[in-house]
Design a protein that fits this description.
With 310 residues, this protein is of the alpha/beta class. Helix content is 39%, strand content 17%. The strands form 3 sheets. It has a 7-stranded parallel beta sheet with strand order 1-2-3-4-7-8-9. Helix 5 (131-141) crosses helix 6 (145-163) and helix 6 (145-163) runs parallel beside helix 7.
């Protein structure tokens, strides 16, 4: 059963394209069966991206945009219920310890079926926006990639402990703008210890890592998380799901064939997915159930005749 648990639209995300309904229609046309809507949560004024500042955004405006997203998502979920199983969620941006208060306010205002726990900033600086910002964050960490990696995974650990997200977003995003984005973390003892600590914590509460094809789309050799991290998580009986992290119609299902080949290569046998089932009572995710699918079943699904990428 083809699905993605991570998506954005240009209607509610400044660095994405296409409006939300067109994204949903495209997912249906491409034979997606489950599709999670996970627009970025609003952020504080000091955390606006350059593109948002140029567009005249403010903290208040971001919250208004997000509120509009939530209303539209509810409407579209009902309108397309017979054609696509839609989950309404958000991607959490953990920036600093005080992010928890901001996030809890968001959770008290909106009813989400799913959320993704992500880290996009280190030392309050976006580490996935461009090389210059990555280098600025690295300088604050002491000037080395290794120290920046350690700071990233420490911040991620804070997020994991505070939120226990059902899905952990692009686990090793920190390598995207690195000089060597295909770097081996296992060769850095301090970094690898922090990675294994974080993986153990995710496994302990039953969290799921997304296999995120955006890394392949952006030219990296392996998806998020890379092979060594995926193999380490498997030793903990860790579970995985699929995400395209699409930012528009053209990226839906992008590089999914390659993503499944990667999953097979590292030894992943089953893929978890969530789906909307109204009336389901869950301790954390009401109206949602999770299921497992054998990787071999996914590989034989006709969807993969249409999805993009090699």
């Amino acid at each position: 059963m083809p699905y993605s648990h991570h998506s954005h639209s240009g209607q509610y995300c400044a660095h994405a394209r296409d409006n939300l309904e067109d994204v949903i229609k495209a997912a249906i046309e491409k034979n997606m069966q489950i599709f999670a809507l996970t627009e970025h949560m609003p952020r504080e004024q000091r955390d606006l991206y350059p593109e948002e500042i140029e567009a005249g955004y403010s903290e208040t405006k971001l919250f208004g945009i997000f509120s509009d997203y939530y209303s539209e998502a509810l409407k579209l979920q009902r309108a397309y219920a017979t054609r696509l199983n839609i989950l309404i969620g958000t991607e959490i941006d953990w920036i600093r310890p005080s992010s928890k208060d901001f996030i809890e306010q968001l959770f008290s205002t909106f009813h989400f079926q799913l959320f993704i726990g992500s880290v996009h900033h280190v030392h309050d600086i976006p580490i996935d926006f461009n090389a210059e910002m990555f280098q600025e964050a690295r300088h604050i960490s002491g000037g080395s990639n290794e120290r920046l990696f350690e700071d990233y995974f420490d911040l991620q650990h804070d997020m994991l402990k505070a939120l226990k997200p059902p899905i952990v977003g692009h686990f090793d995003l920190i390598r995207l703008k690195c000089d060597d984005p295909n770097v081996s973390f296992a060769k850095m003892e301090g970094v690898w210890q922090k990675i294994r600590r974080n993986l153990a914590f995710v496994a302990s509460y039953g969290g799921i890592l997304e296999l995120n094809s955006a890394a392949l789309r952006k030219g990296l050799e392996e998806p998020y998380p890379n092979a060594e991290i995926s193999e380490a998580f498997l030793t903990l009986d860790g579970q995985f799901t699929l995400s395209d992290d699409s930012h528009g119609i053209g990226q839906i299902g992008s590089h999914y064939r390659e993503l499944l080949r990667f999953a097979e290569k590292v030894g992943i046998k089953q893929i978890v997915h969530f789906e909307t089932v109204f009336g389901t009572q869950g301790s954390r995710l009401p109206d949602v159930i999770s299921r497992r699918t054998q990787l071999s079943q996914l590989q034989s699904h006709p969807f993969f005749a249409f999805c993009g990428g090699p």
